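Researcher: Good morning. I'm working through a list of sequences from a screen, and I'd like to move beyond sequence-only analysis. For each chain I'm collecting a predicted structure so we can compare shapes side by side. This is the next one on the list. No need for commentary yet; just the structure.
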Amino acid sequence: MTHLNHPGAGSATPDWHVTAFRGDASLLDAVRELRARILFDHGRRPDFRRANGTHVDDQALDFGAWHFVARQSPAGPPLGYIRLSTPDAGVPYQSREFLGSERYEELLAAEGFPADGVFEHSRLVVEHRARKLGLGQYLNALAVGAAHHLGARAMIGTSGTKDGQDRFHERFGFRPVHGTRRYVPQYTEDVVIMLHRVADGAGRHHDLVTRLRDEFPVIAAARPASPAPAPQARGTAPVTLSGAPAPDHDTWRPVLHTAGRALDALLASGAVREVHDTIDDQLTELVRSREPACRDVAEIERLKDDQLAGTPRWAYGTWAWYPWSGRLVHVLPREEFRLVRTDRNRGRIERPEQRRLFGKRIGIIGLSVGNSAALTFALEGIGGAYKLADFDDFGLSNLNRLRGGVHDLGVNKAVLSARQMYEIDPYLDIEIQRDGLNPDTIEEFFRGGIDLLVEECDTPWVKIAAREYARDLGIPVVMDCNDRGMLDVERFDTEPDRPLLHGLLGDVKSVDLLDLEPRAKVELILAMVDAGRISPELAASFGELGRTLSSWPQLASGVALGGALCGEAARRILLGRPCESGRFYTDLGEQLHASRNVYAGGVR
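Model: Good morning. Structure tokens for this chain:
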């Protein structure tokens, strides 16, 4: 075990304990399982998990390659990994397989590199809990430094593009090879070939690469340790904790049971953690919602018995089983459940209108700000069927505005939103796309019909492509900007020739937005939101993105307001009430200005 005292990205970053091995086949199974589990990423890349639940990433390239495994402490679990392949291993590189041998050799010849001088690094993976701590940067620098020490003239590799991995490699002196980018189903994203010329240095991380180049012999000479987690030692978690089941990050649809054998089997399985049975109280509410003037307790009980018509209370209605929480909940049958659940909408939304709304299908893209709209819609009964799309997982920094608990961290946002909606109404019909939208999945999202689209994502291509589909299909679009209470409405259902985003971007096409540089993306978003109308706080933040700010500033109050505004617009549109295309502001700063105080100077 080699202890290298190298903070990866600043003084607050932990030290990394790195081990390396080459040619030890006994350690490969653990390495492959580690890689595959991280690459699987809770279902983002399903090809890396077998049907039996185990993870697989077996590659012939592993034999003869250098393998580097990083931990935060000598006895800790592995947190990251990278592989370095050398030309003497005799196994075709991953980049050669990607390009094909002829194209690969043409590329090397055009660059003036002999095949025996080109090394390949690949399979850089970091556990979610170690990301943003500099481990990826450290491991990448280590592989590059090792290649420099071993005499490489160039390095080559494949890089994903969805989360900016290609831009990450550019900071080490790599450049993308023109014309090599294409979608790879195994990785569920576009992949591009990256090339690094040793003589040109290692870009922004040249000093770190140089230091690790000189330390590589020490790392290589150390005794390798198993990539598997170390045995339990004093001070580690108790057996009862370490043996507890992992949280369910994938299930999002409840299972609906009626009284019978399936319900009996579920109760006998031991999977049920809590049973919630308030059916008697729900029956009371049902009677009162139908007969608001009835106050006589005996009469209410008689009407409840009439409703049951001899069916035992425990057998009446539906038992909703929520696998992710272990809860089994007894609820009224669907129509009665919804009648009671939306009873207090009456006076604002009458029952015929409620039934119309439950017959609508809503599409929601982007479930951060969109989560507020989704839950508002579910609570208010706007839509009985939904399609949700988001590739991102719920993270700690989302807890400032997205409804969820610490036990939900790591759950895909579309999964989390679907769970929350089903916990409001188990009879909803929800489909999700947890990989978000891209050129290969967007058509599927619109297939089957959508009556209204809520678009709340940050990706310019998706914003435009979704509107292109919506306009072609005559689907109205609403969007909340989460700044100054800006609500955007585009009535493509009544204005089929309306320019996208009110013409703010001219005649832009989504195909032109697939490969935007970060600065171009910021400029495009500024144009979308109309830079002259945004708040001073948001305007000031643009220049700080990536420097002092990790992302756009957003507050829970603004997100909640956005859900309300989207709900109001959606209800009006779906019920045929007035709601024209345009952009509307409900600026809380202006609403709470002293000039708007109707009781200024004292109570009146």
